[in-house]
Amino acid sequence: MTYVIGVDVGGTFTDAVLDDDSGSVIAAKAPSTPPDYSRGVLDVLELLAEQLGRSVEEMLADTHHVAHGTTSSLNALVMRQVPEVGFLTTKGHRDSIFIMNVEGRYLGRSPHELQHVLAQDKDHHLLPKRHALEVTERVDRDGNVIVALDEDEVRAQVHKLREDGIRAIAVSLLWAFRNPVHERRVRELVAGIDPDIYVALSSEVSPRIREFARNSTTIMSTQVGPGLRDYLTNLEASLKDRGLAGPLLVMQSNGGAVAASEAPAQAISTVGSVLTGGVVGSSQLGRRLGHRNIISTDVGGTTFLVGLIVDGEPERDTTTVINHHPINVPTLRVHAIGSGGGAIAWVDAGGNLRIGPHSAQAVPGPACYGQGGTEPTNTDANLVLGILPTSGLLGGRKALDVEQAREAIRTKVAEPLGLSVEDAAAAIHAAQNAQTGDLLRKSVVEAGHDPREFVLYAFGGSGPAFCAKYATHLGVNEVVVPLGPVASAFSAYGLAASDIALAQELSDPAQLPVDPVRAEKNFAQLEDQVRQGLDRQGLKFDRVEIVREVDMRYAMQLAEVTVPVGDGPLDENAMDEAAQRFERKYAELYGQGSGFSAAGIQAITYRVRGRGVLPFSPELPPLEKASGEPEVSARRPVYLEIGQGFVDTPIYDYTALRAGHVVTGPAVIEVPTTTVVVPDGRTGTVDELGNLHIVTNAQNGA
């Protein structure tokens, strides 16, 4: 028996999914354990082993690999809980990270914030100026060394940083992506002074044109690299001590995994690792169910995440924004807000009810957890409304205190708004639905898609309780709640289903027509790097898939668009076809006639993505077919609609449902790791894999 395990470490819960080569899939959920999240990983592995009837050591000895997704890097950057690092750059260019190319004033800000110019600031520098130092050297735009590296000056600057307690240094020299010789020499000099200092080079982390983005990407990768290295080293050692046979893999923002030993060198690539797990899982399940256009929504304890799959492929980005800084990371496009089950409800100075972005997280947790939390959350509201069982979460292992939930809502929301506790809880529930609906509209409609052409997948511990309502806000006709053996651990299922994915890129700006020999040389170099990286992963692949693409733009414009480049030897026709794809896609994104081809088209950045397909991935097993009507396991008053109050509502035990069972709303379905609400006027049908399909009664023929 061979196992694959996916572990999703969230801010509130740690989820795990295990599948074997016989088609069995099991899942487990345990509270996360900040600040040492590795304890939560070991806890959830214990729960998996219990279900197998084996010890953890026996289970890990038969494990092909563990795929791990973590929010630790992203959370550290967002909350700025990172160690101080040093920065070395070319003389005369230090202030580029403080000027921020003007972008630092508007990147990552909401439209509301952008309207208040005087209230904006740029007080979000990545490091103090005393830790940003310059060295004498110069490489020109063609990669020629114009001024040699002053090695004595480098040594002096490194000593200065070291004396100030700096243990990690980001190196980003001008035009280093065209010729990295000076950056590599700086790393050698640092190692000669102190080999334990962590060093990140822009030519390896972000070999792209544009100084500010390259600098910020390298600095942020340096900020999280040492912590990620220590965490993964300790976790992998703990797993190996317990008998793990295969490697520990880490999910990346691009939707694929990489060996834990490789991840710290490209630490910034892991910042969206947990965010992408659900999109990968949705893509896998979508292929099984025949859905090619999917809105993937993951509502955990801390965040609400949205990703799109269009025509069978996840939407991708080449950059993201963290704390107003552009980050050069190939990633699956995922939008996130702090609106999970643990999101705190509060009343602002104007008397408006707000949800999030702050979360109660795992510690202290929602008020109903009884762990010292006093702030009301979405989870507290759902408990007061009768949506959650008073018997607790995780099959009763996580006790819930309804009186503490009521008290938190009474003091922080109900009394300030002049409402009853029940109406205040209903208002929290409605505000959550409206807020998530707004993000969905931004992610889908404002991106130019018709939501009626999509199926919405809803998962996570909290998602199934809200999904029918926020789908209605968006106008989606069908909702799929992936249940079966994975339930709220669906993102962990995506991690277990992920293959190894690596990407290499290189900026080499040139006006079209580009010399095909030059373009072919760039792609050949990148493909060689990708294949060498795949060889280092220590895994055997069924096959390796290579994708080539190039970022293009109109001359004198900044908007770059990524287009695929076909396989095989490049010639002028191949580059012309890529240019035609660029013009079509540009028109789709920005409108017909918005481009100006007479100015010329430029090829800016070349990229190769490699995917090592692993021998097997989890397949959800079929569910036994129903032989009769579903049985109601209990009834209780549930408050689902403002103005209707509590309604006597049937409660169904998911473990008793079978393929073909139909549940008519209003109803609540209790799953060991989540709770599903089927509102009035909707019907939920269990499919052959155990997933619940929620549609309006009119669609269902009722």
TrEMBL record:
InterPro entries associated with the record: ACX-like_C, ATPase_NBD, Hydant_A_N, Hydantoinase_A, Oxoprolinase-like
Residues spanning the signal sequence: none
Lineage, opening ranks: Bacteria, Bacillati, Actinomycetota, Actinomycetes, Pseudonocardiales
Source organism of this protein record: Actinomycetospora flava
Protein name per the record: Hydantoinase/oxoprolinase family protein
Domain Hydantoinase/oxoprolinase N-terminal: 5-190
Domain Hydantoinase A/oxoprolinase: 214-501
Start and end residues of each Acetophenone carboxylase-like C-terminal domain: 521-693
